[in-house]
Amino acid sequence: MDFRFGRRMAVVMWEHLAMRLIADGATPILRLVLANELETDDGYAFELARPLFLAAGDRISFEESKLVVVRASGEQVLPSGDWSTCCRIKSGRRN
Asked: Are 59 and 25 in contact (CB under 8 A)?
């Protein structure tokens, strides 16, 4: 996976609830979020080893296939987890 080009989008998943975040390392999260999985637009998911609180002002990015969280205080956190492929069934329109 190559995360060097462009902005990355991630969807935070927690028990069937989802919130779209921008994972570009520059855009701050607007409110407190509890995440257990981050899903990218290109069909991959980063499954966290344990749930993670992302606070308002935190910024997230994917660097060298790792999730990087930069807290509002400047502290950098590298949560552990594993990558997986998301399987989605797209509903087609029938005529």
From this structure: yes
